[in-house]
Automatic annotation (TrEMBL):
UniProt domain Sulfotransferase: residue ranges: 118-237
SUPFAM superfamilies membership: P-loop containing nucleoside triphosphate hydrolases
Gene3D superfamilies, per database record: P-loop containing nucleotide triphosphate hydrolases
PANTHER family: WSCD FAMILY MEMBER CG9164
Family to which the UniProt record says this protein belongs: Belongs to the WSCD family.
Keywords tagged on the record: Membrane, Transmembrane, Transmembrane helix
Protein name, entry field: Sulfotransferase domain-containing protein
Lineage: Eukaryota, Metazoa, Spiralia, Lophotrochozoa, Mollusca
Membrane spanning stretches: 12-30
Database matches in InterPro entries: P-loop_NTPase, Sialate-O-sulfotransferase, Sulfotransferase_dom
Amino acid sequence: MAALDWLYPSKAVLAPFVVLGLFLVAYNVGTVSKPCQIQQDASPVSSEPRMQEPCPLPGAGRFSRVKLNSTGLLSFPGSGNTWTRHILTTATGILTASVYNNQEDVPLTGIRGRAQRVLVVKTHNLDKLPFSLDRYVIIIRNPYDCLLAAFNRRSEAGVPFQQHIAHQPKEAFLDEWDTFVDGSMKHWSSNYLNWSKLQKPVHLLVYHRLLAQLEPELRDVIDFLHEPSIHPMIHCAARDKEGDAHRQKEEWQEKFAVFSHKQKRYLNDAIDTVQEAWEKRTGKNFADFQKWKRP
């Protein structure tokens, strides 16, 4: 057995080697963990909020990559439909379409699939739609301002007046204004009363509220749309809220765009009726419509 003693050394002989081994293990563990600790300390988790996505270029937009619920943007002419669509595209990056063949619009062309790849479809008349849509955002504006804007944007001999920013000449107010108001004010009233009875989800967007409180009003519209694939950039719309579809006010028109006592009486009554209908439909308060009235 003595010949094999070297294979089984005594505890006294092994002790120094055990101590040395433990020391080396402890040292190596320490040196490995130290750089990890240093790296962790060098890159602490930032508490700063994530940077917002860059805003799209003015006028830029794209078709949605996923199907959306088809939504109509319905309004009486002169209510700010084109400007509202500019705001919506700027806030979402998604294109809008139109049932009209305007040069600046994405045409709907009767294809339902296209209506599901844009955010909203512009129309002033439900009969113009080639198919029924899933829901509607309806823009309403002070009828006095609305009729003046609608008169300015009319076509002469079929040629549009510089799209949405032109003005009618003074001669047109002298010759045509009264007749235009008499016919249009009745359509304004009947349209909004009929639209309050639509058997589809609706959101009433008040134009002067959108002008005065763009961010909360815009967020209400986007909440109504409730599209999970849309990541709104409200700050982008606030930066570029003017767009190129705002008609500059001409002071001289206030002297020519005169409403008769009969016309004002009709419009003031229409404001009451429309307000009541929409409060009943939505359960919301539209008392600010009363500010539209003229004595």
